[in-house]
Amino acid sequence: MEHLAQRYQQHISELNRRVADVLQREQLAGLVIHSGQPHRQFLDDMNYPFKVNPHFKAWLPVIDNPNCWLLVNGVDKPTLIFFRPVDFWHKVADLPDIFWTECFNIKFLEKADQVAPFLPADIERWAYIGEHIDVADVLGFKLRNPEAVMNYMHYHRATKTAYELVCMRRANQIAVQGHKAAKTAFYNGASEFEIQQSYLAAIGQGEEEVPYNSIIALNENAAILHYTALEHQSPIQRHSFLIDAGASYFGYAADITRTYAFSKNRFDELIVAMDKLQLELVDMLRPGASFTDIHIANHQKVAQVLIDFEFALGDPQDLIAHGITSVFFPHGLGHMLGLQVHDMGGYLHDERGTHIAPPEAHPFLRCTRTLEANHVVTIEPGLYIIDSLLAEIKADQRHQLVNWQTVDAFRPFGGIRIEDNVVVHQDRNENMTRECGLID
């Protein structure tokens, strides 16, 4: 923890530097960052699970306490307005006493609607950062999430500090333990629901603590990209298992996917081929590389796999030109990762907010950045049997390019996705997922 505390102080210094820079540019006095408020369920007296503003947790790992506020101007010691109500219905947040507290002037707020006296007197020169615009209006903020400030912060958020990398490595370590437990549960005959319980128990996090809903898919369910149904009954025949599941540490996310065959068969060989392909793509990451170019290179590699395993006929360029690879691999190669699973800034060319749209042929690509040192991205190629997409090919002349017998043979397995979390360094790539022990 002492090592983390030192890195954290450097992290706060960097955030202060960024704030000072953007405030000078935009002629602002400071930023007031709201942790957020609970959302009440419709026609009920209970709230939805609280999700903190990512701009707030960028400063400190308080992720479960609504109605908190940060006052930052890049020069003075940041002020934390920490919500501690008098409440016998719910657990009140503990008094903060951890490595990060010395970096803030801490004031305590007992009633959420009485924050106004804690805010700056010249509030018209401060910008509100958060989702509750109605609250900002009541408090008198004229500037709410100004575009220039948001673009600046989102662009620079892609470059991780040493503290953030420590947190993300730890998130990967936690998630890897869960993946190993889930793999064992699969081979022991567990249902999707039971595998999910094994995963959560191994990482020690609940369903509301993990950064996203786990995808636990057996057999044909692995072809559903965002499958979250979790069947309670085990299938009669066990063919394959795809798990896309992460973990959190101090608000930072891990996002990892693996696919397994129940038996040593042709599908298992396809997994091995996709794993090799994935590692080749990881090797292409470097400062100055275009993520879009790496995504397009993946289509070249997927096309060759389709030919090698007799899914398709022709040469790779023909399969790409006719959209065959996009049917078997319809999503993007990966995305920025950090405070959010799909972290902000993936489409930004510069800190002014210049947007780089994905190519027309690849609309679901989530990152078009030119990579820099200390960027963290996921690399997640896939290959799926998705009948709704295949039906479009079957209905036109492109059906001649597909070996439908092979498609039918692989349909019970659903699909494959392999995903690692990678830090781009100046002179190397750090595959956090594999270096934390998830080799296969």
From TrEMBL:
<feature type="binding site">
    <location>
        <position position="380"/>
    </location>
    <ligand>
        <name>Mn(2+) 1</name>
    </ligand>
</feature>
<dbReference type="InterPro" id="IPR048819">
    <property type="entry name" value="PepQ_N"/>
</dbReference>
<keyword id="KW-0378">Hydrolase</keyword>
<dbReference type="GO" id="GO:0008235">
    <property type="term" value="F:metalloexopeptidase activity"/>
</dbReference>
<dbReference type="Pfam" id="PF00557">
    <property type="entry name" value="Peptidase_M24"/>
</dbReference>
<dbReference type="Pfam" id="PF21216">
    <property type="entry name" value="PepQ_N"/>
</dbReference>
<dbReference type="InterPro" id="IPR036005">
    <property type="entry name" value="Creatinase/aminopeptidase-like"/>
</dbReference>
<dbReference type="InterPro" id="IPR022846">
    <property type="entry name" value="X_Pro_dipept"/>
</dbReference>
<dbReference type="InterPro" id="IPR029149">
    <property type="entry name" value="Creatin/AminoP/Spt16_N"/>
</dbReference>
<keyword id="KW-0482">Metalloprotease</keyword>
<dbReference type="GO" id="GO:0005829">
    <property type="term" value="C:cytosol"/>
</dbReference>
<feature type="domain" description="Peptidase M24">
    <location>
        <begin position="167"/>
        <end position="425"/>
    </location>
</feature>
<comment type="function">
    <text>Splits dipeptides with a prolyl residue in the C-terminal position.</text>
</comment>
<keyword id="KW-0645">Protease</keyword>
<feature type="binding site">
    <location>
        <position position="419"/>
    </location>
    <ligand>
        <name>Mn(2+) 2</name>
    </ligand>
</feature>
<keyword id="KW-0224">Dipeptidase</keyword>
<protein>
    <recommendedName>
        <fullName>Xaa-Pro dipeptidase</fullName>
        <ecNumber>3.4.13.9</ecNumber>
    </recommendedName>
</protein>
<dbReference type="InterPro" id="IPR001131">
    <property type="entry name" value="Peptidase_M24B_aminopep-P_CS"/>
</dbReference>
<dbReference type="InterPro" id="IPR052433">
    <property type="entry name" value="X-Pro_dipept-like"/>
</dbReference>
<comment type="similarity">
    <text>Belongs to the peptidase M24B family. Bacterial-type prolidase subfamily.</text>
</comment>
<feature type="binding site">
    <location>
        <position position="244"/>
    </location>
    <ligand>
        <name>Mn(2+) 2</name>
    </ligand>
</feature>
<dbReference type="GO" id="GO:0006508">
    <property type="term" value="P:proteolysis"/>
</dbReference>
<dbReference type="GO" id="GO:0046872">
    <property type="term" value="F:metal ion binding"/>
</dbReference>
<dbReference type="GO" id="GO:0016795">
    <property type="term" value="F:phosphoric triester hydrolase activity"/>
</dbReference>
<keyword id="KW-0464">Manganese</keyword>
<feature type="binding site">
    <location>
        <position position="335"/>
    </location>
    <ligand>
        <name>Mn(2+) 1</name>
    </ligand>
</feature>
<feature type="binding site">
    <location>
        <position position="419"/>
    </location>
    <ligand>
        <name>Mn(2+) 1</name>
    </ligand>
</feature>
<feature type="binding site">
    <location>
        <position position="255"/>
    </location>
    <ligand>
        <name>Mn(2+) 2</name>
    </ligand>
</feature>
<feature type="binding site">
    <location>
        <position position="255"/>
    </location>
    <ligand>
        <name>Mn(2+) 1</name>
    </ligand>
</feature>
<feature type="domain" description="Xaa-Pro dipeptidase N-terminal">
    <location>
        <begin position="7"/>
        <end position="155"/>
    </location>
</feature>
<dbReference type="GO" id="GO:0102009">
    <property type="term" value="F:proline dipeptidase activity"/>
</dbReference>
<keyword id="KW-0479">Metal-binding</keyword>
<dbReference type="GO" id="GO:0004177">
    <property type="term" value="F:aminopeptidase activity"/>
</dbReference>
<dbReference type="InterPro" id="IPR000994">
    <property type="entry name" value="Pept_M24"/>
</dbReference>
